[in-house]
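Lab notebook, bench 4. The sequencing result for the construct came back, and we need a structural model before the next group meeting so we can plan mutations. Quick request posted to the team channel:

Model the 3D structure of this chain.
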Amino acid sequence: ADKLVRRIAYAEVPPRVEYQQTELAKKLNPVLDLLCRWGGDLRDAKLADL
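Done. Here's the predicted structure in token form:
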């Protein structure tokens, strides 16, 4: 996750932490969208065979 995720810790009680995509990670979104679409298509094809 090096340079892909930004961790923001807040000095609160109870402790709170947020994670955000970096700009570098956002460049992966189109690839991840295609993988998700492919996985959905594969799932749908397998369900159609049942």
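The mean pLDDT is 96.
Will bring this to the meeting.
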